[in-house]
Design a protein that fits this description.
This protein has 428 residues and is an alpha/beta fold. It folds into three domains: 123 residues, Nucleotidyltransferase, domain 5 (2-Layer Sandwich); 135 residues; 148 residues, no CATH class. Helices cover 59% and strands 11% of the residues. α2 links the parallel β4 and β5. The longest helix has 38 residues. The two termini are 53 Å apart.
């Protein structure tokens, strides 16, 4: 147990295993070996009362708390108390530590709380205390993560709708427009079947398309003629009745989801523009309105959180894992990572191929080596993270021309004009 002389800033250590209804905890004062087990109810009032007792017991001195890092909502609740020092522990690290003492795989909440406490006491220097981003950044982080979940809802609903229409009204996939738009919702609510669409007057169809931004008379005339001459995929009344009802049940939540995404986009764009770091991410080629705030959310505003770019590369899953033992040497994809962060960097790297000359050259070379698309994009994201990390540390926007000039000075094979020979030499 660390003594007060070696760590005078801490009065106690706590391990908490957070559950859905009741949470197990284990506490040990810094100047004692006695461990106290406790439990907490899942309620803000119970958490506040416990923190108040903790503050009173240790006179407001610092208390370190170890908790699994996947419990983001718990960290958000605890970080509002200034005397608590939070140490998020990777769930995989806790699982490996548990296996060292329980080879059978047995686990329960109180024992996990004690293991978290033991990890913190014995290996505190291995973990970095959690310093929250400012409120402005945290708001953006929550918004972009919630937006992504709503987008996934949209994908689920449009996939269901596509499959449904293919079964009884496939023409609507063209006539309604993209299913991710309100135009499609309006069309399908008015005309949920071919029979309904063919009963509509040409003037009504024309008015519909004009109201939704189509001003090309030729296109509208072709669409009206297609509606008039189309043949139904099926005349089975059972299929039509059931499918129309299911379509209406799907279009209603789809409309709400599309409108929610629009509101998210408006609010995120406004808050992103107000953030002091927005220029860094606006300078990245191919990021666009959706990925710029996501990249900002991934990096945060605490410039001390990552000491080197490799910390970020490993956390995001861009860095591969090397397994070396004797003659064995295997390199494989990193699975344990921050999934949303990984997805953000991966998507940005894919988009950057269209906006950055060196990114296109690097991607093309990876494909020429026989790598699949996603493996090539993953390798590209590994390089982009290093660049973004430096821009973020320095607080300076990315300059494509400056970076290309630097590549040429180093005779990089990915600089435009270096040619295939330099590419071959770099990978000889």
């Amino acid at each position: 147990m660390p003594s007060k002389e070696t760590e005078p800033d801490l009065a106690a250590y706590v391990g908490i295993d957070w559950a859905d209804e009741r949470h197990a905890g284990c506490l040990c004062a810094a100047d004692s070996h006695r461990k106290q087990h406790f439990s907490l109810e899942q309620s803000p009032a119970a958490l506040h009362d416990w923190v108040s007792r903790l503050r009173q017991e240790f006179g407001g001195r610092k208390v370190a708390i170890a908790i699994e890092q996947s419990r983001g909502h718990v960290i958000s609740a605890l970080m509002t108390y200034d005397f608590l020092v939070l140490y998020p522990i990777n769930p995989k690290a806790l699982a490996r530590y548990r296996e060292a003492f329980a080879t059978s795989g047995a686990k329960d909440d109180p024992s996990d709380a004690e293991l978290l406490l033991s990890l913190l006491v014995s290996h505190r220097e291995k973990f970095r205390p959690w310093l929250p981003d400012d409120a402005q950044t945290r708001t953006l982080q929550l918004m972009v993560e919630h937006r992504r979940k709503v987008v996934q809802d949209r994908v689920r609903l449009t996939n269901r709708l596509t499959s449904l229409l293919k079964g009884y009204f496939p023409q609507a996939l063209e006539w309604a427009g993209s299913l991710t738009t309100l135009q499609a919702c309006d069309f399908l609510e008015k005309w949920p079947s071919l029979q309904k669409a063919q009963k509509a007057k040409p003037s009504r169809l024309r008015s519909f398309y004009q109201q939704h931004g189509c001003r090309q008379s030729k296109v509208i005339d072709e669409r009206i003629e297609q509606v008039r001459s189309a043949r139904a995929l099926t005349q089975d009344p059972a299929i039509l009745a059931g499918s129309v009802l299911m379509l209406q049940a799907t279009v209603v939540p789809l409309r709400a989801v599309i409108q929610s995404i629009e509101r998210f986009d408006t609010e995120i764009a406004l808050r992103f523009k107000q953030h002091p770091d927005h220029a860094i991410y606006e300078s990245l080629p191919g990021a666009g309105a959706a990925l710029e705030p996501r990249l900002l959310a991934a990096m945060g505003n605490d410039r001390e959180r990552y000491e080197v770019a490799s910390d970020l590369q490993q956390l995001s899953g861009a860095a591969p894992v090397t397994d070396k033992s004797g003659k064995k040497h295997v390199v494989y994809r990193r699975r344990a990572c921050a999934k949303f962060m990984k997805q953000t960097f991966h998507e940005f790297a894919g988009h950057s191929i269209q906006g950055s000359l060196w990114a296109r050259a690097y991607y093309d070379h990876q494909r020429a080596l026989g790598k699949a698309h996603h493996a090539s994009v993953r390798a590209l994201s590994f390089k982009w993270i290093r660049i973004i990390f430096r821009c973020w540390k320095d607080g300076k926007p990315y300059d494509e021309q400056c970076y290309l000039a630097n590549l040429r000075r180093r005779s990089s094979p990915y600089a435009p004009g270096m040619g295939s020979k330099a590419m071959e030499a770099a990978h000889a």
